[in-house]
Structure formats: C-alpha cells, structure tokens
Amino acid sequence: MKRNLFPEDIHNMTIKELDLLTYEIREFLIDTVSKTGGHLASNLGVVELTIALHKVFNSPHDKLIWDVGHQSYVHKLLTGRSQQFGTLRQFGGLSGFPRVNESIHDCFNMGHSSTSISLAAGFAAARDLKGEGHHVVAVIGDGALTGGLAYEALNNLGDSKSKAIIVLNDNEMSISENTGGVSRHLSKLRMSRTYLGFKKQVKSGLAHIPKFGKGIHSGIEHLKDSVKYAIVNGAFFEELGFKYFGPVDGHNIEELTQILSLAKNVDRSVVIHVITKKGKGYRNAEKNPGKFHGTEPFDVTTGLPLVKQSAISYAQVFGEKVLELAHQDENVVAVSAAMIEGTGLQKFKETFPERVFDVGIAEAHAVTFAAGLAAQGLKPFVAIYSSFLQRAYDQIMSDVCMHGLPVVFAVDRAGNVGSDGETHHGIYDLSYLSHMPGLTILAPKDGAEFEKMLAYAHAQGSPCVIRYPRGKATNAATEAQSQDIAIETSKSECISIGEDVEIWAVGTMVGIATQALEIIRARGYSAGLINARFVKPLDEAGLTESIKRTKTIVTLEDNIITGGFGSCVADFIKTSGENDIKLLKLGWPQQFLEHGSVDELFHKYRLDAASVAERICEFISS
C-alpha cells in the first residue's frame, strides 16, 4: 500500500471507494505474507468486515477486540501500520497479533482463543462504572465459539445491564474444519437466510399497501418471531438475552455497515452473525484454507513454500508412531483440540476415523474427555500445543493425575516457537507440570528417541507427558552421539563424562549442548554431556554419579529457569547434602519473550551454542 491509512480515512470514503480498497488490501496482504509468513487465510476472509467496523465505529475511542488476534492484519493496515508491514513477525517488527505497545488502536494483547467476549464484558462494565459512552465490539470466530470460556461470557453478558456488540465471524473453520453441536447450530442459522429474505420481502410489500400496510406489519410481528424461532432452532442467542442479527453477508460492505449501525442503537447486547469465506480473493487459500491458516513464506503463483521441508517433523513422527501403536492396540485413541493436521493426526483420522476425537478449541474439555476415555479402559493420546495446554492445568491435575489414568500428552510446540511470539512460546510447561504428583515427563533429543518415548508412554498405564519442539525431528549432532539406549523410567543417557563440568541437557537442547561441548573442550576444559530424557522422575542415581565425577553441573533447558528442570536438579542437590558442587541453571528468563526467529531469540538470550559455551566457561573459572 502506498500510504498509511487511518480510521478517519475510512470514515470519509464512499462505499464504492471502500469496495475498491478491498482489492488493494488483499493484493497487499498476499504479497507481504508470501515474504514474511503468517496467518493469511483468516485475514483475507475479514477484509470487508474490518473495513465496515472502522467505517461505523470510531477507534480508538470505541474498543475493537479481536479474538485470538491472528485475523487483525487488516485492522493493522487501517490503523497506520501499512508502511511497517514488511516487518510483520520479524525480530523487532510488527507482531502477528494485537499488541497494546504497538498501537493505541490495539486495546488488549491477544493470542489465545475464546477470550474476546469475556474481555468485552469487562470493558463494557468498566465503561458503565466510569460513566463513559463508547462502544465495545468483540469479533469472535465460529471456531473460537467452541471454547467453554465463550459460553461463560455469553451467559454473563446476556444477563448484564452493560451492552457490548459481538460479531460472530462464521467461516466454518478454525484451523481444522469445525466439528460439534455448535457448528451444526451455526449451519442451521446460515440456512435461515431464506427466512431473512422472506422477511424483507414481506416488509417491503406491506409498506406499499395504503393506510393498512403499516398496521398489518406491526400486527404480525409476533407471527414473524414465531417463524424465526422455528427456523433458527430456538434463537439460541436471544434466549441468552442478546438481540440477534443475521446471517449477514460478510463480504458486502454496504450490508455490514447498515447492520453495524443498527446495532449501535439497540439498547442491549447484540450478536451479529456474519458469513465469510476464509482465504477469499486468493485461489490457493480458498481451496486449502487450513494450509494457509498459518504459513511460511511461499510462492504466490503456486502457493508452495519457498523453502521445502525435506526433514521429517516431530508432528509427522508423532502421527506415524501413534498410528502404528493403534494398529497394534485397538484401545489406542487420539484426541485433538481443533489441531488434527497441525499435530500430525490426519493419517490417523483417515485410517481410524472412529478412534480420533476433535473436540474443537476446548483444551480443558479435551483433557477431561480423555480422562473419561481412559477410565473406561482406552489409551488416549492427547495432542495439544504447549502454550494451549496450560489452559487445562486443573483438568490435568484433578482429572488425570489424581486418578492415575493412562493419558499420554503429546505436547507439541514446546519451547521457543519463534515468530508467533509471547502468547505462543511453549516455555512454561515444565514449570507448571513438574510438581503434579504421579506425572511422568519426558523430552526427546530427536525423532528417533521420540518414537521410543511414545512406545514407552503407551506401555506405562499412568499419566505421561512428552514435550517436543516445533519443526524438524532430525539432528545430526545428536544422532552422531546416540547410543541407542532403551527408555527406562527415570534413566538418563550418559553421552560423555567430564571432570570440570557435565551438562545435563533437556530435549532439543541436547543438540545445542553437543555443539557447545566442542567449544568448551577447545578451551582446555574436561566436559561431559548427559541427555536427561526424564524431567520427572529425575535420574537421581545418575545425578549422584555425575556429582561424584565433576566439580560443576550445568542444566540446559528450553523452558523458563523458574520451576523447570534446573530447579528440580537444584532441589535434589540441596537435599542430597552435596555442598561442594557448583550448579549453573541455563534456560529462559522469567519474562514474556517477544517474537523473532528461533535462532535470533536463542542468540539474544544467550542460549545458542556459542553463548552457552561462553557462559559455562565463565562459570567454571569464576
């Protein structure tokens, strides 16, 4: 785009000019995201909706809250950030999500699903208490509406005296195709456009009857409401206390502005049901919206990634191994929270459709649902990204661990995930899981070890977590060191020993430790490396031997230092009475990490191989 646009520019444009703007925005989005990567399909689907919102409402005076926030790119373009857009998701550049420190038009930091209605209820209540008069608008997708928090918020807001406007962006997708009762209900509402067309025709026709037309129209309002309730399956939202408008064509700016303007004048909270097409305007994204939900840089013409992923990913290893286990054991089932493709379960779904359960964006439910399966003799593998699993903390504790159920948690995207930033980094799971009684926690150094851990977890009959990073599961450094040792409870893998220092590395950090080891030895130190394998239970016997061999222990993990693997080792050393040993804990600081590439973040926080080696040498010599 040739210049920065602001909301006041949108206010002054005609509908025809805004329609022309949609083509410019889509072309700009496709061109930019093809270079930076990011969430493309969802943003292409909300171009008209976002323009209409800024046409009708007055940001930042009126508050626009974007659920999850991955569909906020158009909002960023209309609030003065188009000239910075080439820095999207780059280190030091624009975030892929709304950020309050980025613009006054971003009223909250977003990144997780199903939160916008709760936030809107809070914003509206605060507005009323303070005697202010602005509007509060929440935009939530039909996928996010499968999350329980959304219903808690609807229940509260519908009964509240505070007014908010809820825009339900219905594109029939989250990341995977939507499933469940909510999806079926929305399908029925989409069909109610037949009713809405009939209502418009009746109103228009009666208006032209002299003298009696207006009275007849008023007299049959009750009849129309009865028809409406019959067609839209009980008018779910109106029963909760909302005024419902829709479905509305989400790609018709004129219709959208009319409905949004009407909603401003309603004296209670409103739900506007908007139908959009994910990926609209870009054929490749329209044909495969899941692929273009979140994409790496790609060729615009073909839609293919610019850098081909030749190495197998952890998600692929997971999918293949769990499918193998399912062939061997009919009790193996898989559970996903709207992440069938992202977690590698697509082939499992195709092979055993009756044994895979996609519960929607409802992580807490996914965990307790899996507990129910396990309590009845099944062996569920629950695949959820690390940053989303934390939403199910209570359910893991009380419904799985307390009952000792054989649920295996495949915790994908653990550690530093790079460009998605602070809401998506999986750097907290070891800290919030390690204190749960009866829970075994493992971390593989590469794909081969991951396969062994999945088989081990399947055989245990008790709660297990296997946490692993995003991306490739092959690692030349760790494979060269591998001794093909079987997985035994709490047993680490001693790769090499040292007199001056031994590094206890967790999971993917074994590769970084392997490279650091060469630098440390080149500086004249005797250094060894242990692949921890188990974060819980700790290899206490192995740690005791390590303490006897060396003067210094270093722990290295892709997790925050507080409460993580290093803290567990520190607690053991303290209780063991070994006062002469020096301990250095290396991991992420206790803060929210910004976005950037994985390598840039490792370098900035001194967790790359060269920095780790330098920090260890400094510690040894201190």
- How much strand? 5-15%
- In spatial order, strands of the major sheet run 7-6-8-9-11-10-15
Structural class: alpha/beta
Low-confidence segments, given as residue ranges, are: 215-234
Terminal CA distance reads 55 Å
Number of helices: 27
Count of strand segments: 17
List the helices and strands and how they pair.
Layout: H1 7-11, H2 15-36, H3 41-44, H4 47-56, E1 63-66, H5 73-77, H6 116-129, E2 136-141, H7 148-158, E3 165-170, H8 181-191, H9 193-207, H10 213-219, H11 221-231, H12 236-239, E4 243-249, H13 253-264, E5 270-275, H14 283-287, H15 314-328, E6 332-336, H16 346-351, E7 356-358, H17 363-375, E8 379-385, H18 386-389, H19 393-401, E9 408-412, H20 429-433, E10 440-442, H21 447-460, E11 464-467, H22 476-481, E12 493-496, E13 501-505, H23 509-522, E14 527-531, E15 534-536, H24 540-549, E16 552-560, H25 565-576, E17 582-588, H26 598-604, H27 609-621
Parallel strand pairs: 1-2, 2-3, 3-5, 4-5, 6-7, 6-8, 8-9, 9-11, 10-11, 13-14, 13-16, 16-17
Antiparallel strand pairs: 10-15, 12-14
Helix pairs in contact: 4-13, 6-7, 9-10, 15-21, 17-19, 23-27
Please outline what is shown here.
The protein has 622 residues and is an alpha/beta fold.
Quick tags:
single chain; alpha/beta; seven-stranded mixed β-sheet; 17 strands
Write up what this structure looks like:
- With 622 residues, the protein is α/β, with parallel strands linked by helices.
- Helices cover 42% and strands 14% of the residues.
- Strands 7-6-8-9-11-10-15 form a seven-stranded mixed sheet, sandwiched between helices. A five-stranded parallel sheet has the order 1-2-3-5-4, with helices on both faces. The chain has a five-stranded mixed sheet with strand order 12-14-13-16-17, sandwiched between helices.
- Helix 6 (116-129) packs parallel to helix 7.
- The protein starts with 6 loop residues before the first helix and ends with a helix.
- Mean pLDDT is 90; it is low at 215-234.
